[in-house]
Amino acid sequence: MLFVGDDWAEDHHDVELQDETGRVLGRAKLPEGVAGIGRLHAMIGEHLGEDDEATVVVGIETDRGPWVQALIAAGYQVYAINPLQVARYRERRGVSGAKSDTGDAHALADMVRTDRHQLRPVAGDSAQAEAVKVLSRVHKTLIWDRTRQMLRLRHALREFFPAALVAFDDLTAPEALELLGAAPEPTAAAALSTERINEALKRARRHGRAAKAEAIAAALRAEHLGQPPVVATAFAATVRAHVAILGTLNAEIKTMGKEIEAHFSEHPDAEVYLSQPGLGVVLGARVLAEFGDDKQRYADARARKNYAGTSPITRQSGKKKVVLARYVHNDRLVDALGQQAFTALNNSPGARTYYDQLRAKGVGHRAALRQLGNRLVGILHGCLKTGKPYSEDIAWAHHRKDLDTAA
User: Fold this and answer.
1) How far apart are CA 286 and CA 137, in angstroms?
2) In the chain, how long is the greatest CA-to-CA distance?
């Protein structure tokens, strides 16, 4: 067996090649791209005979990108190692705090040589799952960007135009963006007619437009503290910029949602995901994207829960024992599972009962949702393992049996 440690950067890779005894066979700094991967293959080939069928194991701190795909395509066993694990492993070899790219490559090679049984190999997800991941991650990133941009707009309005914050509950709504774009400062906004506001509400397809138009007009015309005219004009220019960016983000989020639906619907596991309580197309695609579809990736439901970050961790020393929520997790997956758990309260009687029982025991809202999410991950694992869609009776049968026994 040959072991490769690959410390990657944007434009180059520091690599080290070891044999089974830990003897260093070679080191190199390789450029990113075809030339670099070719030199790596040649470097490995120098230590293999023509008839050798040696296994090549690679440790690298990422699980995506063309370089990783090229390593997998070459038939190498690739282990994506968390940088925190590499840092802790480096501390085992020395306490000076010294760090270098060649040193990290050496640590990575050592790790896959001695500790690969405790590491997770790169999952063999399908191309369809990878496509869904690309789209769902961009979609979520755009939503996060829209939230940040909305907060910037809100901050600007609070500084010179507080009436707008009273008039519009949602600054990302189409009617709010249209009216703020047309009248981005207090004087112009106060001059907006009720008919003009009603037209914007109509284009946004709002119900009860007459009452809403009157309420918005009254809020915009109310007296508030303001800024000098020249300062208000400057703020108005920033509002126009924020409004334009938010309008573009709204359009791209909608477009990306359609792309997600088109790709997700073609995945063979889509039916199972959509059958889960609280999961629609977008949330289902996010959960699929972050879990992947490699059937061998999770040994059991517990492994999937641990990866999801919904299962708790225990810290025990002597007589002290504390159960805590995991703080190192996949943010995108935890966010999607939290939304699923919240939505499932209205879609699944079993989920609602489970949540209510936790709350009755004094468990807080967030902790109860996290435990419900953990339970739903286990249910999802069972459905994916059997290939069968969600069944309310089967999913909560064991829980109801426990309740009957306790009663």
Assistant:
1) 7
2) 86
Residue 119: pLDDT above 60? yes
- Structure token digits, residue 127: 């191309």
Q: Give pLDDT tens digits for 298-338.
A: 989 999 999 898 888 788 878 887 777 777 678 999 999 99
pLDDT at position 407, please?
Answer: 46
321 alpha carbon, distance to own chain's centre: 31
Asked whether 175 and 325 are in contact (CB, 8 A), the reply is no
pLDDT at 326: 74
- 103: tokens are 């040193």
Evaluate whether 270 touches 279 at the Cβ level (below 8 Å): no
How far CA 253 is from CA of 139, 273, 377, in Å, comes to: 6, 22, 27
Q: Please say whether the beta carbons of 77 and 57 come within 8 A.
A: yes
| Alpha carbon distance 101, 122 (integer Å) | 22
Q: How far apart are CA 132 and CA 173, in angstroms?
A: 27
Question: What sign does the CA torsion over 334, 335, 340, 345 have?
Answer: positive
